[in-house]
Amino acid sequence: MLNLNNYLHKLTHLKRGITKYGLAPHKPILLITLLELITNGHLTENRVFVDTDLVGVFQENWRLLVNTLHQPDFTQPFFYLQSEKIGDKPIWQLIAKPGCQINAHIKSVNTLIQVLEYGHFDPELFQLLAEPIARQSLLSALLYTCFPETQQAYFNNKQSGEGYYHDLQGYVLNEPEAQYKTVKIETEEDVFVRGGLFKKLIPKVYNNTCCITGMRLESTFGHNFIDACHITPFSISHDDKVSNGLALCPNLHRAFDRGLITVDSNYNVITSKHINEDIIHTYSLNQLRGKKLILPTVEQYRPALENLEWHRNQIFKG
């Protein structure tokens, strides 16, 4: 049975690429991020899925700890951590989806998600990581060994709750203070995180309720069936703020995107004359004509009237 000291030695003696900027910081940042996600309850089982929190916290920790010109590529350590072993046992492995293979570094986070089922730790290591004292020892060793100059900034940030991920959430939620902060969207991973926050936060501010029908549907497994819908398409506006979003059930999301319904300046539903349906059916779109949107109580979370006007003029098929 391997003990904590074996893993302490392994995690502080990782195989790290030698570059002109010094040792590559990618693997330690990923491990610190995973330890943090276990601590805050986001990771509760030994299955690590690539999601908004994982990539967002990785990017935040990179900005806090890395003071060299290395590039913050999340996908790199996610693949290459598999090369780290104790004896002949890898401490980390990736499991591909059925019919897929992951035999090389996939540089695109969106492509990675298409082929990856999940990543997982060696079971013995994960058992250690589930113990708060052992987990804190591993975190402290990683920070002290790999980031001695910036570890205090990391701790200060985690206490204050501010930083890259916090700022992006404020930006998406249209928080007033976020208007005065520089939120740079530079890489595919930045776009992935911001888009993921949009999908996560829009239903939340609408109480996981369709703003037209009032339908609220969640499963006991934590799945939410209300969509975050862009009013002006992201491909055109690059706007992932809550003021460019509506929480809609899937059928109305599709109808809105295709211009069969829209919303007027008083937040009332307008339906298209091009709808061919059974108008007396319980779920017919025309029965929603004139219905008032169920809006968030916080005004800054409400859809911007200029965005709704754009949708009426450019998408709606009157």
Question: Key terms for this structure?
Answer:
two-stranded antiparallel ribbon; alpha+beta; 41% helix; 318 residues; two-stranded antiparallel sheet; 10% strand; 13 helices
3D structure, described in words:
With 318 residues, the chain is of the alpha+beta class. It folds into 2 domains: 154 residues, no CATH class; 139 residues, no CATH class. It has 13 helices and 10 strands. Strands 1-2 form a two-stranded antiparallel sheet. The chain has a two-stranded antiparallel sheet with strand order 3-4. Helix 1 runs parallel beside helix 7 and helix 2 packs across helix 3. The chain is elongated and about 70 Å long. The chain starts with a helix and ends with a helix. The mean pLDDT is 89.
Please outline the helices and strands:
Blueprint: H1 4-11, E1 18-19, E2 22-23, H2 26-39, H3 52-65, H4 75-80, E3 85-86, E4 89-90, E5 92-96, H5 109-115, E6 116-121, H6 123-129, H7 132-146, H8 151-160, H9 164-172, H10 188-205, E7 227-230, H11 234-237, E8 245-248, H12 250-257, E9 261-263, E10 269-271, H13 305-314
Antiparallel strand pairs: 1-2, 3-4, 5-6, 7-8, 9-10
Helix pairs in contact: 1-7, 2-3, 2-7, 3-10
Low-confidence stretches: none
**Structure classification:** alpha+beta
Number of strands: 10
Q: What is the 3D form?
A: elongated
Task: Note the beta-strand portion.
Answer: 5-15%
Biggest beta sheet summary:
2 strands, antiparallel
Q: In what order do the strands lie side by side in the largest sheet?
A: 1-2
**Would you list the SSEs in sequence order as H and E?**
HEEHHHEEEHEHHHHHEHEHEEH
> How many alpha or pi helices?
13
Quick check: average pLDDT?
89
Range of helix content: 40-55%
- Our count of domains comes out at 2
Question: Radius of gyration over alpha carbons?
Answer: 23 Å
Question: Separation of termini?
Answer: 70 Å
